[in-house]
TrEMBL record:
GO terms, biological process: fatty acid metabolic process; glycerol-3-phosphate metabolic process; phospholipid biosynthetic process; piRNA processing; triglyceride biosynthetic process
GO cellular component terms given for this protein: mitochondrial membrane
GO molecular function: glycerol-3-phosphate O-acyltransferase activity
Name of the featured protein: GPAT/DHAPAT C-terminal domain-containing protein
PANTHER family, per the entry: GLYCEROL-3-PHOSPHATE ACYLTRANSFERASE, GLYCEROL-3-PHOSPHATE ACYLTRANSFERASE 2, MITOCHONDRIAL
Chain segments annotated as coiled-coil in the UniProt record: none
High-level lineage: Eukaryota, Metazoa, Chordata, Craniata, Vertebrata
Length: 749
């Protein structure tokens, strides 16, 4: 079949795509899942308040759609200036500095950081009006759930100050949160922004940001790491957070999944509560989803010119997507940390969990929880007690998972996922439409909300119009279906991969289970002497669980529920293979007595089911060992490969990084190491000519973190930064090959 590129204009795509689409009933007329509920295990009292429950549906609101009905006035002139009148009618919570500076600062060195902060009513109104105009040029809609905003109003009356926590995707995140709260007469939070805006030419920019309540890096520090290593800065920021919360102000904190930055600010909020400065603080996870995520802007340096360049780059985009903002249910920080329901102990370094498996094929070490102490490095808040440090890490894990679980799946994400992971070689438009319906139902079934509505025609056409720059449309006969495929270009594949990242979280149980099944099938093929995967085999539950558990430990933070053990997650991953129809259970009769659940770990002894004298309430009987076979329907292999492909991007990046370690002139600083590895992975992708999505800088940072946790890379913390070097063990080719084989067994290609 011959292929020809179609022009990038919407008219060309509209003429060819709309012609083949058929109108269907709207998607979301009957069901919309309730998202954003707090943890039922760690915060049952907050969940029991049911702030999100038993309220009539208020629907959604587009923040950018401001009409005269949103003001107190009517008339022809009002319709022309309704945006100005609406902004002027919003409530601004004035914040007097008073003697706060004298209470916070002990030296003049830091007086200029926040001495003139917040809140200038006229400046806030002007900034809000400008943001509204800017977002109208950038997005076609910014949708918010009115029920969730009503919940925030009730929470401010019940639980004191609110601390909003989000995962940073762009410099627009905080502006969107602040504008949403301002438009609904909620207190606009002070924003923690680890950006360096130096004086001189940028004096005006720094002054404006400070007066709008943005907490910037001090003048002497170029990065957040440098600032946090200064003990005086750390103490001042701790005092600042305490004074702000005591005055009833709200805060906005961003956390980073890749390096854990942001956890120290949560620790400072926690210190404020434990010291009795405020009786209670509520945390609010905020999930922000973009149809077209803005390009990552550079941090931590900022200037007036860089801000203008960033704004112009956003406005020069060819397409305008939408935004969906979800405010999850607020939960009590005191309940989370002081109730004892949140477990923080018993974690082991990843090196101790997996290295016995990698080097000696020993499985007894994998039954544990992975340590993630890097979420709050020891150089941050060194005075913090170990128990408080562990509690802050557990809190950070909860918030990361809560934020990602609250995000809405956008239509561009669904289409990108299908094209990138299910139909890599191309898909007919009619097949794509059927798969969009299928994937939408699966997403809603797993209690994830979606950021769109309408008919199939509207959803598919809108998604393809936004993604057309990254797709190819094959030339087919007039009566046939158009065939779509991804452009084999780095930028196109990286964009499609970024669009569908959230789908990996949605199907994380199935993806882990599918990769475990794939790894076992490859082992069977290897033992049989053949190179191809064998499907007509019996797989044991114990072996599948062990494979799933090994892969679970390799996953980055945020994908696994923090209150669930890794072993329990692995069991659920195996069960998910049965629920989705990939595996069918095969009963194997056994004559041996039923044993206790923990017998294979040597904790309890054998007990027979027919002896009542030996049973007790504490015994957990286990059914006969299960075994599974792959189901016979023709769609089973296709579904298995689709689920495996969801994790292949991360696993391939990890394999490429392992292969590239010998090319680095180690030791290097962490930032230089990431930069050089990024170059090697892009070169590797050019040789591969297919999988450019595995060469993103975000994946490089994650793989460096994983290899550091495994002990492959050794950290050397010095005053000028963190240096990385290769462990002597993995300088030996045989150990490096074992590691590469361990990771690649889960990789579907």
């Amino acid at each position: 079949m011959s292929e020809g590129e179609i022009e990038h204009s919407d008219l060309s795509w509209g003429a060819k795509i709309r012609k083949k689409l058929k109108a269907v009933a709207p998607f979301l007329g009957k069901f919309r899942p309730l998202v954003g509920q707090c943890c039922h295990q760690c915060t049952p009292e907050s969940l029991g308040q049911k702030l999100l429950h038993k309220t009539p549906s208020l629907g959604f609101q587009n923040l950018l759609c401001v009409k005269e009905t949103h003001t107190r006035y009517r008339g022809w002139l009002v319709r022309r200036v309704c945006c100005v009148l609406f902004v002027l009618g919003r409530k601004v919570y004035a914040s007097s500095v008073g003697d706060r500076v004298n209470r916070i600062y002990s030296t003049e060195r830091y007086t200029k950081v926040t001495v003139n902060m917040r809140l200038y009513t006229d400046l806030s109104l002007l900034a809000s009006w400008m943001l509204l105009k800017l977002f109208r040029l950038m997005f076609y809609s910014v949708q918010v759930n009115l029920n969730q905003l009503a919940t925030l109003h009730r929470a401010t009356q019940l639980n004191g100050p609110l601390v909003y926590v989000y995962i940073r995707q762009s410099a627009l995140d905080q502006a969107l949160i602040s504008l949403t709260l301002f438009f609904h007469n909620l207190r606009v939070p002070y924003s923690v922004c680890p950006v360096q805006v130096r004086h001189g030419k940028n004096r005006l920019l720094r002054a404006v940001l400070q007066k709008l309540g943005v907490i910037l890096l001090p003048q002497h520090a170029a990065t957040e790491q440098q600032a946090e290593t200064d003990s005086s800065y750390s103490l001042i920021m701790t005092s600042l957070i305490g004074e702000l919360l005591r005055a009833g102000e709200s805060l906005s904190i961003n956390v980073c999944v890749e390096n854990g930055h942001g956890g120290q600010w949560l620790a400072r909020v926690r210190q404020t509560v434990t010291q009795g400065l405020v009786p209670a603080v509520s945390l609010v996870p905020v999930g922000i989803s973009y149809d077209c995520p803005p390009q990552q802007d550079t941090l931590p340096q900022a200037s007036m010119w860089s801000v203008l360049r960033f704004v112009f780059s956003l406005l020069s985009g060819d397409h305008r997507g939408g935004v969906r903002i979800h405010f999850a249910q607020p939960f009590s920080l005191m309940e989370m940390c002081d109730s004892g329901k949140c477990r923080v102990d018993g974690r082991c370094p990843l090196q101790e969990l997996l290295m016995p498996v990698i080097q000696h094929n020993r499985m007894d070490s994998i039954f544990g929880q992975k340590d993630v102490s890097w979420l709050l490095p020891p150089t941050y808040l060194p005075e913090l007690p170990q128990a408080e440090r562990e509690m802050t890490i557990a809190l950070t894990l909860h918030l990361i998972h809560s934020v990602t679980s609250s995000m809405a799946v956008m239509s561009t994400g669904i289409v990108s996922c299908l094209i990138l992971h299910k139909h890599r070689r191309g898909v007919r438009l009619s097949v794509l439409c059927k798969d969009v319906c299928w994937l939408l139902e699966e997403v809603l079934f797993r209690n994830f909300d979606v950021g769109f509505a309408g008919s199939l025609v509207e959803v598919v056409y809108f998604s393809l119009s936004l993604l057309c720059r990254h797709l190819l449309l094959a030339a087919v006969p007039p009566a046939g279906d158009p065939v779509l495929t991804a452009r084999p270009e780095p930028n196109a594949l990286l964009t499609l991969c970024q669009q569908c990242e959230l789908l990996t979280l949605v199907f994380i149980h199935e993806a882990v289970g599918a990769c475990a099944v794939s790894a076992m099938l490859r082992e069977v093929a290897g033992c049989g002497g053949g190179g191809e995967m064998e499907f007509d085999v019996v797989l044991g539950q114990e072996e599948l669980t062990e494979k799933s558990l090994q892969l679970t430990h390799l996953l980055p933070v945020g994908l696994i529920p923090p209150c669930q053990t890794a072993h329990s997650f692995a069991l659920d991953a195996v069960d998910s293979m049965v629920r989705c129809g990939i595996l069918i259970m095969e009963e194997v009769p056994r004559a041996t007595p039923v044993c206790d659940y923990w017998r294979r770990q040597g904790v309890l002894s054998w007990t027979a089911t027919d002896d009542p004298d030996q049973s007790s309430d504490s015994d957990c009987e286990e059914q006969d060992k299960r075994s599974y076979k792959l189901s016979q329907p023709p769609q089973c292999p296709e579904l298995l490969f689709f689920l495996c492909s969801l994790l292949s991007t991360q696993l391939r990046a990890l394999c490429w990084t392992i292969e590239s370690l010998h090319l680095l002139p180690l030791p290097l600083t962490e930032s230089v190491c990431v930069t050089q590895l990024h170059t090697h992975l892009r070169n590797r992708a050019q040789l591969d000519k297919v999988h450019h999505e595995s060469s993103s800088i975000k994946l490089v940072r994650m793989t460096v973190r994983t290899l550091t946790d495994l002990g492959v890379l050794i950290e050397d913390r010095q005053t000028e930064g963190v240096y990385l070097d290769t462990s002597p063990v993995f300088l030996q080719p045989e150990n490096k090959q074992k590691l590469l084989h361990f990771v690649s067994q889960f990789l579907y290609s």
